[in-house]
């Protein structure tokens, strides 16, 4: 995770890598690049507090097994860490809303079905937590750059057509690393 000032937005942006999360009450942005990974942008409607994570959930699950598999702990862990940070910032859980992105089946990925698995996981988790999804851009075959502004709940999405192979390679390397941590 790193923080940079972006003149275009006239504010700081915290850049997330795979497996990272960040929550803030400040007027700053959070950004990441997604291929088959998903990000949940969770914010308190009207409260100026929010956060985002970057989840890579390896494996292949049937929907009813999504929370039972040992590899689901990575996605579950990322969601629980983000929720914990938001609770520490004293959000009103009844006003939490989510915007979710990613889950593409990008060309070059060595593991098929990961994007859909990630989508199913994040939707199931948010449903279980009773956090409504108010906006999403999921699936497809295109990587995305996400800019989330927790203070307002605004999200900007830029589709990435170039460098998709590089994104796929980064995700594959991270996925391979996780195999040895299970």
Overview of the structural elements:
The protein is of the alpha+beta class. It has one domain: 60s Ribosomal Protein L30, Chain: A, CATH 3.30.1330.200. 26% of the residues lie in helices and 32% in strands. The chain has 3 helices and 10 strands; from the N terminus they run ββββββαβαβββα. A 5-stranded mixed sheet has the order 1-2-4-9-10, with no helix packed on it. A hairpin with a 4-residue loop joins strand 9 and strand 10. It is globular, with a radius of gyration of 15 Å. It starts with a strand and ends with a helix. Mean pLDDT is 83; it is low at 58-62 and 69-73.
Radius of gyration: 15 Å
Question: How many strand units?
Answer: 10
Largest sheet data:
5 strands, mixed
The CATH topology turns out to be 60s Ribosomal Protein L30, Chain: A
Measured distance between first and last alpha carbons = 23 Å
Tell me the fraction of residues in β-strands, as a range.
25-35%
CATH architecture call: 2-Layer Sandwich
Strand arrangement, major sheet? 1-2-4-9-10
Task: Average the pLDDT over all residues and give the rounded result.
Answer: 83
- Which ranges are low-confidence, i.e. pLDDT below 50, for 5 or more consecutive residues? 58-62, 69-73
Q: Count up the helices.
A: 3
Helix content: 25-40%
Structural class: alpha+beta
Shape: globular
CATH class equals Alpha Beta
H/E series, N to C?
Answer: EEEEEEHEHEEEH
User: How many structural domains?
Assistant: 1
């Amino acid at each position: 995770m790193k923080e940079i000032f972006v003149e275009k937005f006239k504010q700081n942006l915290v850049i997330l890598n795979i497996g990272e999360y960040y929550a803030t009450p400040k007027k700053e942005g959070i950004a990441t690049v997604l291929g088959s990974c998903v990000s949940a942008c969770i914010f308190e409607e009207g409260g100026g507090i929010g956060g985002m994570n970057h989840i890579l959930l390896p494996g292949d699950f049937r929907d009813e097994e999504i929370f039972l598999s040992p590899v689901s702990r990575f996605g579950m862990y990322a969601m629980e860490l983000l929720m914990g940070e938001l609770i520490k910032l004293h959000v009103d859980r009844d006003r939490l809303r989510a915007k979710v992105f990613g889950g593409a089946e990008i060309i070059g990925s060595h593991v098929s079905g990961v994007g859909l698995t990630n989508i199913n996981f994040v939707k199931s988790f948010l449903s279980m937590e009773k956090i409504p999804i108010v906006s999403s851009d999921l699936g497809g075959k295109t990587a995305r750059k996400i800019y989330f502004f927790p203070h307002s709940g605004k999200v900007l999405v830029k589709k990435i057509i170039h460098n998709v192979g590089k994104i796929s390679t980064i995700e594959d390397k991270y996925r391979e690393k996780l195999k040895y941590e299970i």
